[in-house]
Amino acid sequence: MTDPLPMEAAAGPPPGCPAHATAVRLSGLEYQQTPSQLYRSLRRDHGPVAPVLLDNDVPAWLVLGYNEVSYVTGHDELFARDSRRWTQWDNIPPDWPLMPYVGYQPSVLFVEGAEHQRRAGVISQALDAVDQMELSAMCRAIGHSLITSFAGSGHADLMTAYAHPLPMRAIVQLCGMPPGGVDTEDLVRDLRLSLDANEGEDPVAAYGRVQARIEQLVKEKRAAPGNDVTSRMLLDPAGLTDEAAVQDIITVIAAAQQPTANWIGNSLRLLLTDDRFATTVAGGKLSVGQALNEVLWLDTPTQNFIGRWAVRDTQLGGRHIKAGDCLVMSFAAANTDPQMWPEGHVGAENSAHLSFSNGEHRCTFPGPQLGDVIARTAVETLLEALPDVVLAVEADALRWRPSIWMRGLLDLPVSFSPVLG
């Protein structure tokens, strides 16, 4: 890991920035393997709220403290979601890599107040109608189908062959899209690009393709509704427009796919590398559920989230936050805040983590429960089908995605006894 670059190495921040001479770039860094080291150094040098530079040296605040993240996400009247408040828009190019995160869309992610409550209510009602037993059975069937495709070879990359396709197939079926189609696989790829693009990829164009596919889905369900999440959202008495429905369905699919896929992958990594689990899961001493929960504390899939925008000048963590400043929520840093765990031991047995955020804009109920069903079923199905699965490389050779936003493996190579038939 290299040391984060101070602002002096940059060409200089845009005028009026909240950062000062020790601001840290959150792009182009080589800390992806161990981001916890970055969070520790930021806490040491800056406390619970640190000045940072996003892509193109755009200034923001990184909120690291558990109490501070909880405060920001619990006080919408001070730190709101509508990104049009940002004072940096004059410095943001239209092809900015983070535009899919911060470019205002009339979706449940950005609307506020009564409109947010209305839109979140529509999603909640549509998701609450999902039978969790049926969802588990669906995920088990999807899991077995995926495992069958590689079980005879005795080896696989579980990220590409299992962890990513399983939640996507589940959520698109829940939303009323046909499973296994070419357009569904294209949607998986474009969602990843729009949320977590590598260098040289175009997240803005990818998001445009995602939107076009969901626009088509809404058109189809308006004409012929079915027993699916999309149809229930369109038929809700709240009366969503097609534009609102498209934006909110994209939110539902994106929230279910990338984070859940990385939750599955990170949990499988823990189970296969940590002796507490690797030698005991089969015997039932430590549960898959415990591994899933520990991952949410220590390797949460959504490690940083952009963002909140200050409604007015205020104080946070000893910092003066100006109206229109951008705040990035570091859920990963908050979950391992030494103020919460002064002895350095994260109490993974409880569920007070911030991995699903907090407050009115937290992950809409029952989204976290459905994500747990998908992830738990995926992991259990794999371990039951391939009981002798082991890593095919040394644990420290595993590669993490080069991202400050999503915590997930590039690949998870494993080997096992071939299963024929």
TrEMBL record:
Signal peptide: none
Domain of life of the organism encoding this protein: Bacteria
Protein name: Cytochrome P450
CDD domains noted in UniProt: CYP_unk (cd20623)
Family: Belongs to the cytochrome P450 family.
Molecular function terms from GO: heme binding; iron ion binding; monooxygenase activity; oxidoreductase activity, acting on paired donors, with incorporation or reduction of molecular oxygen
Organism from which the protein derives: Streptomyces montanisoli
